[in-house]
Protein backbone atom coordinates (compact mmCIF):
# COMPACT_ATOMS: atom_id res chain seq x y z
CA UNK A 1 0.00 0.00 0.00
CA UNK A 2 1.43 3.37 -1.06
CA UNK A 3 1.94 6.18 1.47
CA UNK A 4 -0.47 9.07 1.12
CA UNK A 5 1.10 12.35 -0.03
CA UNK A 6 1.18 15.08 2.62
CA UNK A 7 -0.79 18.28 2.08
CA UNK A 8 -0.03 21.21 4.38
CA UNK A 9 -3.12 23.40 4.76
CA UNK A 10 -2.48 26.99 5.82
CA UNK A 11 -5.47 29.06 6.85
CA UNK A 12 -9.06 28.24 7.78
CA UNK A 13 -11.68 26.28 5.87
CA UNK A 14 -15.03 28.02 6.04
CA UNK A 15 -17.45 26.06 3.87
CA UNK A 16 -15.62 23.27 2.02
CA UNK A 17 -15.24 20.78 4.86
CA UNK A 18 -16.78 17.99 2.81
CA UNK A 19 -14.31 18.52 -0.03
CA UNK A 20 -11.39 18.35 2.40
CA UNK A 21 -12.87 15.26 4.06
CA UNK A 22 -12.98 13.55 0.67
CA UNK A 23 -9.40 14.64 -0.08
CA UNK A 24 -8.27 13.05 3.17
CA UNK A 25 -9.04 9.67 1.60
CA UNK A 26 -6.06 10.09 -0.73
CA UNK A 27 -3.87 12.57 1.20
CA UNK A 28 -2.51 13.14 4.68
CA UNK A 29 -3.75 16.64 5.50
CA UNK A 30 -1.83 18.55 8.19
CA UNK A 31 -2.21 22.12 9.44
CA UNK A 32 -0.55 24.60 11.77
CA UNK A 33 -1.70 26.20 14.99
CA UNK A 34 -3.29 29.66 14.58
CA UNK A 35 -0.76 30.99 17.10
CA UNK A 36 2.25 29.97 14.98
CA UNK A 37 4.44 32.79 13.72
CA UNK A 38 6.87 32.99 10.82
CA UNK A 39 9.93 32.11 12.88
CA UNK A 40 8.30 28.96 14.25
CA UNK A 41 6.96 28.05 10.81
CA UNK A 42 10.38 28.30 9.14
CA UNK A 43 11.85 26.20 11.94
CA UNK A 44 9.15 23.52 11.56
CA UNK A 45 9.78 23.31 7.80
CA UNK A 46 13.32 22.15 8.57
CA UNK A 47 12.48 19.86 11.50
CA UNK A 48 12.46 16.23 10.29
CA UNK A 49 10.26 15.29 13.27
CA UNK A 50 7.53 17.71 12.15
CA UNK A 51 4.74 16.67 9.77
CA UNK A 52 5.14 20.13 8.22
CA UNK A 53 8.60 19.18 6.93
CA UNK A 54 7.06 16.28 5.00
CA UNK A 55 4.72 18.49 2.95
CA UNK A 56 4.48 17.86 -0.78
CA UNK A 57 1.67 20.29 -1.55
CA UNK A 58 0.95 23.50 0.39
CA UNK A 59 -2.38 25.30 0.26
CA UNK A 60 -2.64 28.83 1.60
CA UNK A 61 -5.20 31.57 2.13
CA UNK A 62 -4.72 35.33 1.97
CA UNK A 63 -5.12 35.54 5.75
CA UNK A 64 -2.52 32.84 6.46
CA UNK A 65 0.19 35.42 5.80
CA UNK A 66 -0.35 36.41 9.45
CA UNK A 67 1.20 33.09 10.53
CA UNK A 68 3.82 32.52 7.83
CA UNK A 69 4.61 35.91 6.36
CA UNK A 70 5.08 36.37 2.62
CA UNK A 71 6.04 33.43 0.46
CA UNK A 72 9.29 35.16 -0.42
CA UNK A 73 12.81 33.94 -1.14
CA UNK A 74 13.57 33.14 2.48
CA UNK A 75 10.47 31.01 2.85
CA UNK A 76 10.89 29.39 -0.56
CA UNK A 77 14.49 28.44 0.25
CA UNK A 78 13.31 26.96 3.56
CA UNK A 79 10.78 24.59 1.97
CA UNK A 80 11.71 20.91 2.08
CA UNK A 81 12.73 19.29 -1.20
CA UNK A 82 9.50 17.28 -1.12
CA UNK A 83 7.34 20.31 -1.96
CA UNK A 84 6.11 20.28 -5.57
CA UNK A 85 3.31 22.86 -5.46
CA UNK A 86 1.85 25.85 -3.63
CA UNK A 87 -1.88 26.34 -4.18
CA UNK A 88 -3.20 29.83 -3.36
CA UNK A 89 -6.84 30.49 -2.47
CA UNK A 90 -7.63 33.56 -4.56
CA UNK A 91 -7.16 35.14 -7.95
CA UNK A 92 -4.51 37.61 -6.77
CA UNK A 93 -1.33 35.94 -5.55
CA UNK A 94 0.97 38.91 -4.94
CA UNK A 95 1.90 37.47 -1.52
CA UNK A 96 3.92 34.85 -3.44
CA UNK A 97 7.19 35.82 -5.14
CA UNK A 98 6.78 33.35 -7.99
CA UNK A 99 10.25 33.85 -9.48
CA UNK A 100 11.86 31.98 -6.57
CA UNK A 101 9.41 29.09 -6.81
CA UNK A 102 10.11 28.86 -10.52
CA UNK A 103 13.82 28.46 -9.78
CA UNK A 104 13.03 25.64 -7.34
CA UNK A 105 10.59 24.08 -9.82
CA UNK A 106 7.64 24.40 -7.47
CA UNK A 107 4.29 24.92 -9.16
CA UNK A 108 2.11 27.83 -8.06
CA UNK A 109 -1.63 27.78 -8.71
CA UNK A 110 -4.37 30.30 -8.01
CA UNK A 111 -8.17 30.42 -8.26
CA UNK A 112 -9.10 32.64 -11.22
CA UNK A 113 -12.52 33.02 -12.88
CA UNK A 114 -14.53 31.94 -9.83
CA UNK A 115 -14.02 35.40 -8.29
CA UNK A 116 -15.18 37.28 -11.39
CA UNK A 117 -18.88 37.70 -10.63
CA UNK A 118 -18.62 38.65 -6.96
CA UNK A 119 -15.75 41.07 -7.60
CA UNK A 120 -17.52 42.64 -10.57
CA UNK A 121 -20.70 43.13 -8.53
CA UNK A 122 -18.68 44.90 -5.84
CA UNK A 123 -16.98 47.00 -8.52
CA UNK A 124 -20.30 48.13 -9.99
CA UNK A 125 -21.60 49.04 -6.53
CA UNK A 126 -18.53 51.18 -5.85
CA UNK A 127 -18.52 52.74 -9.31
CA UNK A 128 -22.16 53.84 -9.19
CA UNK A 129 -21.74 54.97 -5.59
CA UNK A 130 -18.73 57.11 -6.51
CA UNK A 131 -20.44 58.51 -9.60
CA UNK A 132 -23.53 59.52 -7.59
CA UNK A 133 -21.76 60.67 -4.37
CA UNK A 134 -23.71 58.11 -2.33
CA UNK A 135 -21.03 57.89 0.36
CA UNK A 136 -21.42 61.59 1.12
CA UNK A 137 -25.17 61.25 1.65
CA UNK A 138 -24.82 58.00 3.59
CA UNK A 139 -22.39 59.58 6.06
CA UNK A 140 -24.70 62.55 6.65
CA UNK A 141 -27.69 60.24 7.19
CA UNK A 142 -25.85 57.93 9.64
CA UNK A 143 -24.49 60.90 11.59
CA UNK A 144 -27.99 62.40 11.99
CA UNK A 145 -27.36 65.36 9.72
CA UNK A 146 -30.45 64.95 7.52
CA UNK A 147 -32.76 66.78 6.92
CA UNK A 148 -30.90 69.69 8.53
CA UNK A 149 -28.18 69.42 5.87
CA UNK A 150 -30.74 69.97 3.12
CA UNK A 151 -31.95 67.93 0.12
CA UNK A 152 -30.00 64.70 -0.41
CA UNK A 153 -28.23 65.38 2.87
CA UNK A 154 -26.31 68.21 1.26
CA UNK A 155 -24.44 65.79 -0.98
CA UNK A 156 -23.00 67.28 -4.18
CA UNK A 157 -25.07 66.53 -7.26
CA UNK A 158 -23.81 63.33 -8.88
CA UNK A 159 -23.71 62.12 -12.47
CA UNK A 160 -25.58 59.61 -14.58
CA UNK A 161 -23.68 57.17 -16.82
CA UNK A 162 -25.03 59.04 -19.85
CA UNK A 163 -22.24 60.39 -22.04
CA UNK A 164 -19.45 58.99 -19.85
CA UNK A 165 -16.41 57.06 -21.05
CA UNK A 166 -15.34 54.12 -18.90
CA UNK A 167 -11.68 53.20 -19.12
CA UNK A 168 -11.07 49.61 -18.08
CA UNK A 169 -7.48 49.13 -16.99
CA UNK A 170 -7.08 45.38 -17.33
CA UNK A 171 -9.65 43.61 -19.50
CA UNK A 172 -9.02 40.16 -18.05
CA UNK A 173 -11.69 37.91 -16.59
CA UNK A 174 -12.77 40.38 -13.92
CA UNK A 175 -12.43 43.41 -16.21
CA UNK A 176 -14.57 41.79 -18.89
CA UNK A 177 -17.22 40.88 -16.32
CA UNK A 178 -17.20 44.46 -14.99
CA UNK A 179 -17.67 45.85 -18.52
CA UNK A 180 -20.49 43.38 -19.20
CA UNK A 181 -22.23 44.40 -15.97
CA UNK A 182 -21.89 48.10 -16.80
CA UNK A 183 -22.98 48.05 -20.44
CA UNK A 184 -26.76 48.12 -19.74
CA UNK A 185 -26.41 51.31 -17.66
CA UNK A 186 -26.01 53.55 -20.72
CA UNK A 187 -22.36 54.64 -20.67
CA UNK A 188 -21.28 56.20 -23.96
CA UNK A 189 -18.09 54.19 -24.59
CA UNK A 190 -15.87 51.55 -23.08
CA UNK A 191 -12.15 51.70 -23.73
CA UNK A 192 -9.47 49.46 -22.29
CA UNK A 193 -5.76 48.95 -21.96
CA UNK A 194 -3.93 45.63 -21.61
CA UNK A 195 -0.33 44.67 -22.26
CA UNK A 196 -1.60 43.51 -25.66
CA UNK A 197 -4.84 43.80 -27.58
CA UNK A 198 -7.44 41.05 -27.17
CA UNK A 199 -9.45 39.32 -29.86
CA UNK A 200 -12.64 41.06 -30.96
CA UNK A 201 -14.68 38.36 -29.26
CA UNK A 202 -13.05 39.02 -25.90
CA UNK A 203 -13.19 42.79 -26.36
CA UNK A 204 -16.99 42.59 -26.57
CA UNK A 205 -17.35 46.15 -27.84
CA UNK A 206 -14.54 47.71 -25.77
CA UNK A 207 -11.99 49.74 -27.74
CA UNK A 208 -8.27 49.15 -27.26
CA UNK A 209 -6.21 52.28 -26.49
CA UNK A 210 -2.76 53.05 -25.13
CA UNK A 211 -2.31 53.62 -21.40
CA UNK A 212 -1.91 57.37 -21.89
CA UNK A 213 -5.04 57.55 -24.04
CA UNK A 214 -7.02 55.67 -21.42
CA UNK A 215 -5.92 58.22 -18.82
CA UNK A 216 -6.79 61.17 -21.09
CA UNK A 217 -10.17 59.96 -22.36
CA UNK A 218 -11.78 58.28 -19.35
CA UNK A 219 -14.43 59.86 -17.15
CA UNK A 220 -14.34 56.74 -14.98
CA UNK A 221 -11.24 54.55 -14.58
CA UNK A 222 -12.00 50.96 -13.61
CA UNK A 223 -8.92 49.18 -12.24
CA UNK A 224 -8.72 45.41 -12.68
CA UNK A 225 -5.01 44.59 -12.98
CA UNK A 226 -2.94 42.23 -10.83
CA UNK A 227 -0.23 43.56 -8.55
CA UNK A 228 3.32 42.76 -9.58
CA UNK A 229 6.58 44.72 -9.83
CA UNK A 230 5.50 46.17 -13.17
CA UNK A 231 2.08 47.36 -12.01
CA UNK A 232 2.95 48.68 -8.54
CA UNK A 233 2.12 52.42 -8.44
CA UNK A 234 1.07 52.27 -12.09
CA UNK A 235 -1.30 55.09 -11.15
CA UNK A 236 1.11 57.59 -9.64
CA UNK A 237 1.24 61.39 -9.53
CA UNK A 238 2.32 61.57 -13.17
CA UNK A 239 -0.57 59.34 -14.24
CA UNK A 240 -3.11 61.40 -12.27
CA UNK A 241 -1.78 64.50 -14.00
CA UNK A 242 -2.76 63.04 -17.38
CA UNK A 243 -6.35 62.31 -16.33
CA UNK A 244 -9.41 64.47 -16.91
CA UNK A 245 -10.28 66.90 -14.15
CA UNK A 246 -13.00 65.34 -12.00
CA UNK A 247 -12.28 61.75 -12.97
CA UNK A 248 -13.79 58.90 -10.93
CA UNK A 249 -11.46 56.09 -9.80
CA UNK A 250 -12.65 52.59 -8.86
CA UNK A 251 -10.31 49.88 -7.58
CA UNK A 252 -11.20 46.32 -6.56
CA UNK A 253 -7.87 44.83 -7.69
CA UNK A 254 -4.95 45.53 -5.34
CA UNK A 255 -4.35 48.73 -3.42
CA UNK A 256 -0.69 49.13 -4.32
CA UNK A 257 -1.35 49.54 -8.05
CA UNK A 258 -2.24 53.08 -6.94
CA UNK A 259 0.22 55.37 -5.18
CA UNK A 260 -2.10 56.09 -2.26
CA UNK A 261 -0.34 59.33 -1.31
CA UNK A 262 -0.80 60.58 -4.87
CA UNK A 263 -4.47 59.55 -4.82
CA UNK A 264 -5.10 61.48 -1.60
CA UNK A 265 -3.45 64.54 -3.13
CA UNK A 266 -5.59 64.20 -6.28
CA UNK A 267 -8.77 63.82 -4.22
CA UNK A 268 -7.95 66.91 -2.16
CA UNK A 269 -7.31 69.00 -5.27
CA UNK A 270 -10.46 67.77 -7.03
CA UNK A 271 -8.48 66.20 -9.88
CA UNK A 272 -10.14 62.98 -8.78
CA UNK A 273 -13.75 63.85 -7.95
CA UNK A 274 -14.54 60.64 -6.14
CA UNK A 275 -13.25 57.12 -5.61
CA UNK A 276 -14.69 53.68 -4.92
CA UNK A 277 -12.12 51.52 -3.13
CA UNK A 278 -12.30 47.94 -1.90
CA UNK A 279 -8.51 47.64 -1.56
CA UNK A 280 -5.80 49.81 -0.05
CA UNK A 281 -2.05 50.03 -0.40
CA UNK A 282 -1.15 48.89 3.12
CA UNK A 283 -4.39 47.24 4.20
CA UNK A 284 -5.72 46.68 6.75
CA UNK A 285 -4.01 49.95 7.68
CA UNK A 286 -5.70 52.81 5.82
CA UNK A 287 -4.76 56.49 6.17
CA UNK A 288 -7.32 58.25 8.33
CA UNK A 289 -7.20 61.19 5.92
CA UNK A 290 -8.51 58.90 3.18
CA UNK A 291 -11.19 57.37 5.40
CA UNK A 292 -12.43 60.82 6.41
CA UNK A 293 -13.02 61.98 2.83
CA UNK A 294 -16.78 61.96 2.09
CA UNK A 295 -16.06 61.58 -1.63
CA UNK A 296 -14.54 58.15 -0.99
CA UNK A 297 -16.76 55.07 -0.94
CA UNK A 298 -14.69 52.46 0.86
CA UNK A 299 -15.06 48.80 1.77
CA UNK A 300 -12.77 46.54 3.84
CA UNK A 301 -11.77 44.20 0.98
CA UNK A 302 -15.22 42.63 0.54
CA UNK A 303 -14.99 41.83 -3.17
CA UNK A 304 -15.36 38.05 -2.84
CA UNK A 305 -17.05 37.99 0.56
CA UNK A 306 -20.08 35.87 -0.37
CA UNK A 307 -20.96 32.37 0.80
CA UNK A 308 -21.21 31.02 -2.73
CA UNK A 309 -17.92 32.45 -3.97
CA UNK A 310 -15.92 31.46 -0.89
CA UNK A 311 -17.32 27.92 -1.01
CA UNK A 312 -16.59 27.55 -4.74
CA UNK A 313 -13.06 28.86 -4.24
CA UNK A 314 -12.36 26.55 -1.31
CA UNK A 315 -13.67 23.58 -3.25
CA UNK A 316 -11.62 24.49 -6.30
CA UNK A 317 -8.35 24.66 -4.39
CA UNK A 318 -9.05 21.07 -3.31
CA UNK A 319 -9.58 20.18 -6.99
CA UNK A 320 -6.19 21.73 -7.75
CA UNK A 321 -4.57 19.61 -5.04
CA UNK A 322 -6.32 16.45 -6.18
CA UNK A 323 -5.22 17.00 -9.76
CA UNK A 324 -1.59 17.47 -8.66
CA UNK A 325 -1.77 14.25 -6.67
CA UNK A 326 -3.31 12.27 -9.53
CA UNK A 327 -1.58 13.82 -12.56
CA UNK A 328 1.35 15.80 -11.20
CA UNK A 329 0.05 19.11 -12.56
CA UNK A 330 -2.18 21.86 -11.13
CA UNK A 331 -5.32 22.90 -12.99
CA UNK A 332 -4.64 26.64 -12.92
CA UNK A 333 -0.93 27.35 -13.08
CA UNK A 334 -0.20 31.07 -12.68
CA UNK A 335 0.78 32.83 -15.94
CA UNK A 336 4.47 33.26 -14.99
CA UNK A 337 4.91 29.48 -14.81
CA UNK A 338 2.70 28.32 -17.67
CA UNK A 339 4.50 26.39 -20.38
CA UNK A 340 7.40 25.31 -18.17
CA UNK A 341 8.61 21.91 -19.38
CA UNK A 342 9.21 20.67 -15.84
CA UNK A 343 5.54 21.20 -15.05
CA UNK A 344 4.39 19.39 -18.18
CA UNK A 345 6.57 16.41 -17.27
CA UNK A 346 5.58 16.34 -13.58
CA UNK A 347 4.69 12.94 -12.15
CA UNK A 348 1.64 11.93 -10.10
CA UNK A 349 2.07 11.66 -6.34
CA UNK A 350 -0.08 8.59 -5.77
Automatic annotation (TrEMBL):
Domain of life: Eukaryota
Gene3D superfamilies listed in its UniProt record: NAD(P)-binding Rossmann-like Domain
Domain D-isomer specific 2-hydroxyacid dehydrogenase NAD-binding residues, every copy: 125-303
Assigned keywords, A-Z: Oxidoreductase
GO molecular function, one term: NAD binding
Annotated signal peptide: none
SUPFAM superfamilies per UniProt: Formate/glycerate dehydrogenase catalytic domain-like, NAD(P)-binding Rossmann-fold domains
Pfam family name, one: 2-Hacid_dh_C
Residue intervals of the D-isomer specific 2-hydroxyacid dehydrogenase catalytic domain: 65-332
Single GO cellular component term: cytosol
Entry's family note: Belongs to the D-isomer specific 2-hydroxyacid dehydrogenase family.
Protein name per the record: D-isomer specific 2-hydroxyacid dehydrogenase NAD-binding domain-containing protein
Species this protein is from: Zygotorulaspora mrakii
Amino acid sequence: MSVKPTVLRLGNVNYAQEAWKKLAQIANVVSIEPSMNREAFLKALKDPKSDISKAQIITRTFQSVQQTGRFDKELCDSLPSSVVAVCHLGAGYDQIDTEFFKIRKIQVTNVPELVNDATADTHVFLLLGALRNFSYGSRVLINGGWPKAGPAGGAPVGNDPEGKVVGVLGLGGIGRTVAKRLQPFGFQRFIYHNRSRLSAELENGCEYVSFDELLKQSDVISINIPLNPKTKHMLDEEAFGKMKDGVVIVNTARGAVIDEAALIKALKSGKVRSAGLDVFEHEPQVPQELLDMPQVTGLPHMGTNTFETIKHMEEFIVENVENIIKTGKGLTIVPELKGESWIDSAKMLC
